[in-house]
Design goal:
The chain is α+β, with helices and mostly antiparallel strands. The chain folds into 3 domains: 159 residues, FAD/NAD(P)-binding domain (3-Layer(bba) Sandwich), CATH 3.50.50; 151 residues, D-Amino Acid Oxidase, Chain A, domain 2, CATH 3.30.9.10; 112 residues, no CATH class. Strands 5, 6, 7, 13, 14, 15, 16, 17 and 18 form a 9-stranded mixed β-sheet that branches. Strands 1, 2, 9, 10, 11, 12, 19 and 20 form an 8-stranded mixed β-sheet that branches. The longest helix has 17 residues.
């Protein structure tokens, strides 16, 4: 199939989708191509922290200033994706109060609201904190739902004319002279091939940015850093809890809907496709985060997962934590002589809009147009289904519930299926909170497959689809399988063996 567009965006994470929305608001046609579904990379594998910039304010003040500026903008344009919890940077007896004082000073210089709280006041706010803590600094951190954020951006962009081609992988990039002439892509589910002609190509492939550039005979220096995280079966604190010390492993706890997410590690990675959370990382995260919240030692963990940070590698940075969390925007005309190619990578989820703005600004300059950005002014409409548990509880009423853990309604899922666009099981999970609760899909996925069969949408052997989901789910459960988790896993195993003969 032959396709033509003004701008081709490669990468369906927050940055790529943000660019599609930005361009749609400027009236510039675009097509976004993604080899899997939205949020299949780092955008769907983070700890959901709505950054104030505090985590980088001492080590990377420029990135911190970007975070707090975008923090203020996103509160206005996507409030439905954000829980304004605030965050605490806690000092334990072994931590340097000199660092705490430097932290407060750096926050002031970066325009991050920060104020010191006494030990007694902190414990009155968060009783589960380590009673031996010395003090804490309050900052405007929060929790953000990356799935709702990206999907709401995508829906708004699509309503304004942007187009998306999911489950399609770029296989080659043809460069003639000083321009990218066309791109070949292949559908990963059905094998259909596409020849795409675009006036401009934007590489927003995140951790895959360098691999994509190789197809055009180019390279960029990147450090791929694996960050592993753990999910608890309950929400342990109402605020984001950070350790007030130089960035290290196991120094943050983020409340996320009904659970808490413990993070994170930083491990250099070479293989983008095959990686896992190791037992050593699990032990380290529990050991370090429990110093802030002792209850973690006795809390049941329901899943471990990891995301890959795409860090732009500069000279002399041997430690991945020393590499800036800011983003890099490359005009390949200046660097490589390719006039219609742009790469954007790095950054944080909270800076996705700024990254999209700067990329679109560069594109407009290359096009010779003067179309201003308006994404900082125009709110993004909320998705149809409520995202937080309180609103889902109100909406459930007498409706049939498909997922008991997260109160996902059957009619909510049926509506998504009738609208079309979803191609496999994972697509549905990205668009709802199915399988994100304490049973991790053990009791709702087979119900979902029943709906797919009734609607004639289950392509192929349903048991094979179910087995594939369970195998993928097992990767996240196995690293945290002990104690009461084993009992639940044995129960779920007996259900699938007994009912489905798996």
């Amino acid at each position: 199939m032959r396709l033509q567009t003004e701008v081709l965006i490669i990468g369906g994470g927050a940055t790529g989708v943000g660019i599609a929305r930005d361009l749609s608001l400027r009236g510039i046609p675009s097509l976004l191509i993604e080899r899997e579904d939205f949020l299949s990379g780092a955008s769907g594998r983070n700890h959901g922290l709505f950054h104030s910039g505090g985590r980088y304010v001492v080590s990377d003040p420029e990135a911190a200033r970007e975070c707090i500026a975008e923090n203020r903008i996103l509160r206005k344009i996507v409030p439905h994706c954000i829980e304004e919890t605030d965050g605490l940077f806690v000092s334990l007896p072994e931590d340097s109060l000199d660092f705490r004082d430097r932290f407060i000073q750096a926050c002031e210089e970066a325009d991050i609201p920060a104020y010191l709280l006494s030990r007694d006041h902190v414990l009155s706010l968060e009783p589960e904190l380590n009673p031996d803590l010395l003090s804490a600094v309050n900052v405007p951190d929060g929790a953000i739902d990356p799935f709702e954020l990206v999907l709401a951006n995508a829906k708004d962009a699509e309503n304004r004319g942007a187009k998306f081609l999911l489950h399609s992988e770029v296989t080659s990039i043809l460069v003639e002279g000083d321009r990218v002439k066309n791109i070949l892509a292949k559908n990963t589910l059905h094998g259909e091939e596409y020849l795409i002609e675009a006036s401009y190509l934007i590489n927003a492939a995140g951790a895959w940015a360098d691999r994509l550039l190789k197809l055009a005979g180019l390279r960029m220096a990147m450090a791929l850093s694996k960050g592993s995280m753990l999910i608890t079966n309950q929400r342990l604190a109402n605020r984001v809890i950070n350790r007030c010390r130089p960035p290290s492993d196991g120094d943050i706890i983020v409340p996320n809907h009904t659970v808490s997410i413990l993070g994170t590690t930083s491990v250099r990675l070479e293989d983008l496709e095959h990686f896992e959370v190791t037992p050593q990382e699990v032990s380290l995260l529990i050991e370090e985060t429990s110093k802030m919240l002792p209850a973690i030692e006795e809390t049941r963990l329901i899943r471990a997962y990891a995301g890959i940070r795409p860090l732009f590698q500069s000279e002399g940075k041997g430690d991945d934590r020393a590499i800036s969390r800011g983003f890099v925007l490359i005009d390949h005309e200046k660097r490589d002589g390719i006039r219609n190619l742009i790469t954007i990578t790095g950054g944080k989820l909270v800076t996705y809009r700024l990254m999209a703005e700067k990329t679109s600004d560069l594109l407009c300059r290359k096009m010779g147009t003067d179309l201003p950005c308006s994404t900082h002014l125009k709110p993004i409409p909320a998705m149809d289904a409520p995202s937080n548990l309180k609103d889902r509880l109100k909406a459930s009423g007498e409706a049939e519930i498909l997922c008991d853990c997260e109160l996902v309604r059957t009619d909510e899922v049926e509506k998504i299926l009738k609208e079309g666009g979803v191609k496999d099981l994972q697509d549905i999970l990205h668009r709802t909170r199915l399988a994100k609760g304490t049973c991790q899909g053990g009791f709702c996925i087979y119900r979902l497959l029943g709906i797919l069969n009734e609607m004639g949408l289950a392509e192929g052997d349903s048991n094979k689809i179910l087995r594939g989901f369970l195998e993928e789910r097992w990767k996240g459960i196995r690293p945290v399988l002990w104690g009461s988790s084993i009992k639940e896993e044995e129960l779920i195993e007996s259900i699938y063996k007994g009912i489905f003969n798996l």
